[in-house]
Structure formats: C-alpha cells, structure tokens
Amino acid sequence: MIPLSLALVMLLLCVCGMVAHQHQRCVAQIASPGRGFPLALMSALILPAMVLYGFLGHLWDWDQGRVDHRVGYLLQKTINEDRLALESEPANPERYLKLARSHAAGGQYEQAVTVMEQLLARATPQAAWLGLQASYLYYRDGRAFGEDARARVEQALSLDNTDVTTRMLLANQAYLIGHYAEAIGHWQVLLASHRDDVNRTAIGNAIARAEARLPDAS
C-alpha cells in the first residue's frame, strides 16, 4: 500500500502543479484574451484529466498477477467475471468452458488450454471438451498440430467419431494446407451423421468450394 499511496501523492502534486501553472498563464492573459486563452484553459482542464485517466485506468486490474494488455478492457472484465464464477462453482463444467472460451476470444490460448486441462482432470472427459482443447493447442502453436493436439484429437474421436469440434478442426486444417480431399472427407462424416448440432448448409458450401479446388476439377 505504501508504494501506491506514494504514487497517488506524487500524482496529485503533479496535477496541482500543472493546474497552478496553467492558472497563472490564464490570469496573465485575461486582460487581453486572445486565441491563446481558450487553448490554455483547455490544457488546464484536459491534461490533468488525461494523466488521472492513464494512471487510474490500471487500478482496475490491481489484483491480477499478469494482465495481457493486448486484451481489451471489456473482454478482460468478462474474463475476470468468468474466473470469479468458476471459483464460486468449481464443480460446474460450464464455468470452465465459458472461461476457456473467453480466454480464447482474447487470443490467450495458453490460458484456455490450462483451464480445459483443469476441467478434464476434474470430470470424465467428453469428446467435445477434448476437441475444444485440441483447437486451443492448435492455435496456441501457431496453427500447427503438435503432439499434444494430435493426442487430444485421437482421444476425442475414440469417444465420438462424429464430434463436431474435432472434425471441423481437422477439416479446416486440411483445407488451409491444400488437402481438399481430406477436408471433404471430414465434412462428409458430419453430413452423414444424425447430429442436430451440424450446420449442413454451411458444410455443404464448404464442400463445394473444396471440390472446386481439387486438381481434377474443371
């Protein structure tokens, strides 16, 4: 608390000094106000406000060990709320999933992987969870399939060969590297399934685009 108090005192002294300096300049120009007077007055009001905003803006995350400054304020707020919700309901799988998705939305794939690992250690693994963690591992490693991601994919498909998250991950990766026939194969597995959570229209369009890129397509 001492460093924080000292910083606040120094900040207030700095602001007061700025205001006093600008006030003297304004008083000196009141007798013959010109273009400089409004500018000086605006500086006296705006500059201290900017200094305060720049400092106080960081007080919102004072209790975070490390904050990813690339994440926007609103998203970081959501992550913090999801973390608190998880702490209040550590046995609720949905809390883990929501926090992991929030981390992933901010590009924090390492944190998302960690949250999913915690969930998989607490509850019986499900194919969708394994596929989701495989996706986070894939993006964490720069859109590359490492050993960990491949292991999760194999686990997921062993539990559910038609898991949407896992099959979509494999199809998208195959499409991106030009393996269009392989991508089509993964999408067709989903189309042939009787799942209700499959967007058949979108998958049909994706298959059509991939077929148009096949070497023998004309």
TrEMBL record:
Keyword Transmembrane set for record: yes
Gene3D superfamilies: Tetratricopeptide repeat domain (1.25.40.10)
Pfam families documented for this protein: TPR_19
Transmembrane annotation, as ranges: 38-60
Alphabetically ordered keywords of this record: Cytochrome c-type biogenesis, Membrane, Transmembrane, Transmembrane helix
Coiled coil: none
GO biological process: cytochrome complex assembly
GO cellular component annotations of the record: plasma membrane
Cross-referenced PANTHER family: CYTOCHROME C-TYPE BIOGENESIS PROTEIN CCMH (PTHR47870)
Protein's recorded name: Formate-dependent nitrite reductase, NrfG protein
Organism: Ferrimonas balearica (strain DSM 9799 / CCM 4581 / KCTC 23876 / PAT)
